[in-house]
Design brief:
Strand content: 5-15%
Structural class: mainly alpha
Number of helices: 2
Strand order of the largest sheet: 1-2
Number of strands: 2
Shape: elongated
């Protein structure tokens, strides 16, 4: 699997140990390498979602309020 740069995700909140405990609690046995890949993937998805939301939101310079530009967003 391709290595994802961790510099993009400098504000990670879930540690490898926490992730292993959460997965184990839910019946999923993993090792440290697998958890690193899972977390990389989840943070990549979160980053993509965050960037998509930022692109869909514009700020009105006169009021300073943001508004959605996408017609297909969830309420």
């Amino acid at each position: 699997m391709q290595q994802i740069s961790t510099r993009v995700f400098s504000d990670r909140k879930v540690s490898i140990v926490q992730a292993i405990k959460i997965l184990k609690k839910n019946g999923i046995e993993t090792n440290e390498k697998q958890v690193k890949e899972i977390l990389d993937f989840l943070y990549l998805l979160a980053k993509m979602h965050s960037n998509k939301n930022a692109q869909d939101t514009l700020i009105d310079n006169t009021t300073g309020k943001g508004y959605r530009t996408s017609k297909h967003h969830l309420s």
